[in-house]
Design a protein that fits this description.
Helix content: 40-55%
Largest sheet: 7 strands, mixed
Number of strands: 7
Shape: elongated
Strand order of the largest sheet: 1-2-3-4-5-7-6
Mean pLDDT: 87
Oligomer: single chain
Strand content: 15-25%
Number of helices: 6
Low-confidence stretches: none
Structural class: alpha+beta
Length: 205
């Protein structure tokens, strides 16, 4: 097998692999690289219809990547909606993502009947991208029970919007936010929150 065959097989394999990605941005980036490889491969063989198709796909991927990156830190890309702790859609979302939630917060349980618990859906348009479940711990402290982002949107920054850009906690009178203890692979350090034991702390005063 010559190097040109290797190039063609590698491009095709990467194209297939990109279609298996659940994360939107990762899919677009891998698909773009695969299309570039296939442009070179088909160009060297002189298969111009395939070159034209892959050039068009490259342009489409670049357009979507630029749009996705421009929305990544936008204050208007996301919205936080409060729902009742017993809301059926909230319960449905928790059931659907239960196995994935357990990977990041092992042993998580939600007790909606306990006073002081509030629930929020993080939305991007009409799509739910995450959940934030909060318990009022008293003294102006918000204890986050669950901070979850769906796999499709983990390349974005809904957490940055919730903790830094939105007024979710300030508008409810909280002066301090504690993140869930024992969370696997927490990202809060990148947002500037300070570590305190197994949690991170956001001071709102």
């Amino acid at each position: 097998m010559g190097w040109l065959d290797v190039l063609g097989w590698a491009g095709s394999a990467l194209l297939i692999f990109s279609l298996m990605q659940s994360r939107v941005l990762r899919f677009r980036l891998l698909n773009l690289v695969a299309c570039v490889v296939l442009v070179i491969f088909n160009g060297l063989l002189g298969i111009w219809p395939m070159v034209a198709m892959n050039v068009a796909l490259c342009a489409i991927n670049v357009w979507f990547i630029r749009k996705l990156l421009s929305d990544r830190h936008s204050e208007t890309a996301f919205e936080v909606l409060q729902v009742g702790p017993l809301d059926e859609y909230l319960r449905h979302t928790l059931r659907v993502h239960a196995a994935d939630i357990d990977k990041f917060q092992p042993g998580f349980t939600w007790s909606p009947v306990i006073p002081g618990h509030t629930a929020y859906l993080v939305q991007r348009g009409d799509e739910t991208v995450g959940l934030v479940l909060v318990r009022d711990a008293g003294g102006g402290v918000a204890q986050v029970e669950l901070d979850y982002v769906t796999p499709r949107f983990r390349d974005f920054s809904p957490g940055e919007f919730v903790f830094r850009q939105s007024r979710l906690f300030r508008d409810r009178g909280f002066r301090k936010v504690l993140t869930p203890p024992g969370m696997v692979a927490p990202y809060y350090g990148r947002l500037g929150l300070r570590r305190e034991g197994e949690s991170y702390v956001l001071d709102l005063s």
